[in-house]
Amino acid sequence: MGTVFSFDVRGGEPGAVRSALAEAVAGLHRADMLFSTYRENSEVARLARGELEPARCAPEVTEVLDLAAEAERVSGGWFATRYRGVPDPTGIVKGWATERAARLLAGVPGVRGVGVNGGGDVQLLGSPEPRRPWRVGIADPLRPGGLAAVISAAGAEELSVATSGTAERGAHIIDPRTGRPAETDLVAVTVVGPRLTWTDCWATAAFARGSRAALAWLESLPDVEALLITAGDEVRCTGGLAARLA
Questions:
Q1: Torsion angle, CA of 196/117/20/9, rounded to 10 degrees?
Q2: What span, in angstroms and rounded, lies between the C-alpha atoms of 228 and 210?
Q3: SS3 of 132, please?
Q4: Cα atoms in the Cβ-side hemisphere of radius 13 Å centred on 204
Q5: Are 138 and 161 in contact (CB under 8 A)?
Q6: Cα 225 from chain centroid?
Q7: Sign of torsion over alpha carbons 23, 25, 26, 31
Q8: Phi and psi for 115 in degrees, rounded to 5?
Q9: What tens digit of pLDDT does each residue of 52-96 get?
Q10: How far is CA 99 from CA 30, 64, 114, 228, in A?
Q11: How confident is the model at residue 168 (pLDDT cuts 50, 70, 90)?
């Protein structure tokens, strides 16, 4: 998936954790093999060329296509499942794969906390220590090396933090109405919610919308909070975000 993954697993028998970690890493590699648009023989590439029908795809591809369609519906089309006219669910894959890896590790007996970071998007389950929550720093897109905020998972058994923006990869987020890079007043959107599968999608869709429309839409989603930063260095937040700040 062209990025780095890191794992933080607390508790559990070491041998069982190592075995689960190997399985989780293998799952990430399989996701890359199935969904990469850079591999000619990936199922997504074959779908795009019309060589493979969705009904004949691997179960993971079918699952992700269904999730992507739901994301498109909830976002009012601002999260797109097609690119240049062909099926392309890759916008949801990293969040889905990261969350799936975290849940696999959390299922190991004795594990009390799991954090998986997939290229800066994080899925947290449980806690690292008794009475000590996970905390995630949000990079300041306008001040390299600085933090815009710190999110706390206090009181939550599962929490994810996903950011979309231009600071790391430039103008790569597409406006689904035009098929061109989104023209927006935003430089970063961070979305906080229980599942990374969805927060990753919502961050992307919100960025494409622009700050005013995005904030109103994010406020309407259940169990979701967000931090938006504009190119003019304005910070806009959903109403409940303050309760998540460390």
A1: -110
A2: 9
A3: strand
A4: 31
A5: yes
A6: 14
A7: positive
A8: -130, 125
A9: 998 999 999 999 999 999 999 999 999 988 888 888 888 899 999
A10: 15, 13, 10, 23
A11: low
Instruction: Tell me, yes or no, if the pTM score tops 0.90.
Output: yes
Residues 6 or more apart whose CB falls under 8 angstroms from that of 67 comprise 89, 92, 96, 197
pLDDT of residue 84: 80
Distance CA 108, CA 104 (A): 7
pLDDT over 70 (residue 102): yes
Q: Which amino acid is at 120?
A: G
Q: In 129-238, which ranges are E strands?
A: 135-139, 147-152, 158-165, 174-175, 180-181, 186-193, 225-230, 235-237
pLDDT tens sequence across 10-48: 999 999 999 999 999 999 999 999 999 899 999 999 999
Q: Would you state the structure tokens that stand for residue 20, as one six-digit string? A: 């689960």
Burial class (CB in 10 A: 0-12, 13-18, 19+), 116: buried
Q: List the one residue out of 179, 192, 189 whose CA is nearest residue 212.
A: 189
DSSP 169: T
Tens of pLDDT, residues 128-155: 999 899 999 999 999 999 999 999 999 9
Write down the pLDDT at residue 207. 93
Please check whether residue 128 is in contact with residue 136, taking contact to mean a CB–CB distance below 8 angstroms: no
Picking from 79, 120, 81, the residue whose alpha carbon sits closest to that of residue 204 is 79
The model's pLDDT over 181-230, given as tens digits with 9 standing for 90+, comes to: 888 999 999 999 999 999 999 999 999 999 999 999 999 999 999 999 99
